[in-house]
Every structure is written in structure tokens, then in C-alpha cells.
Design brief:
This protein is an alpha+beta fold. About 30% of the residues lie in helices and about 15% in strands. It has a domain at about 60-108. It has helices spanning about 35-50, 70-80, 100-105, and strands at about 5, 25, 85, 90. The strands form 2 sheets. The protein has a two-stranded antiparallel sheet with strand order 1-2.
Length: about 110
């Protein structure tokens, strides 16, 4: 995400979270051959929303960027994120799921 491009004016309203105030955006290209899982996630989102992209941002909150699964789960539990996906794991926040229960399910 080192290059900045101008987002087409007619598309800016569809992707406001990735459009900077000057109309630019940091775009990253994903190829099916090099990252098939991420590519298929983006394709599934496109089928649901009509938008062929997802927001990719750093994963942290007032701390260094998350590097380990334990750090990701801890950050998820402290914040208002809706979903956490790690490899084959999909964790959705639920009012019925308490923090204690999730932590007790973690492997050592």
C-alpha cells in the first residue's frame, strides 16, 4: 500500500472509508494466484455488496500492531469490532458470548 491513486469521482461515495479528503486512496492489488483466500473473501464481499474491495488497515488500538493470535483476540475483546477472522477461525461478537467464556476456550 505504498502508492496513492486518485479514486474516480463517481466511485468515491461508494467507498468513503478508503477515500482521503483529497480524493486519493492507498490501493493494494490482490491476485488469486498469490493470495487465493483473501481474493475469494473480496469476491464474496463484491457479490454481497457490489463493491469489489475491502478496507485493509493496521490491527491495533493504542498499542503495537497485532502479531500473534493471542494479541488479536485480546484486541478484539477490548474493542467494538464485530468480527475477527484468523485463518480458518471466524469469531463473531455476540451478546450471549462473554469475555470469560472466550478466554477459557483459548488453547495454551
Amino acid at each position: 500500500m505504498m502508492k496513492v491513486f486518485q479514486i474516480r469521482k463517481d466511485k468515491r461515495s461508494k467507498i468513503p472509508a478508503v477515500t482521503h479528503v483529497d480524493g486519493s486512496g492507498r490501493l493494494q492489488t490482490v491476485f488469486k494466484t498469490t493470495n487465493p483466500r483473501y481474493y475469494h473473501l473480496i469476491e464474496a464481499f463484491r457479490e454481497l455488496s457490489g463493491v469489489p474491495m475491502v478496507l485493509n488497515t493496521s490491527f491495533n488500538e493504542n498499542e503495537p500492531v497485532v502479531c500473534k493470535p493471542e494479541e488479536a483476540l485480546d484486541c478484539f475483546l477490548r474493542t467494538k469490532m464485530d468480527v475477527l477472522v484468523m485463518g480458518n477461525w471466524f469469531i463473531r461478537r455476540s451478546l450471549l458470548l462473554c469475555k470469560h467464556y472466550v478466554k477459557s476456550m483459548m488453547l495454551p
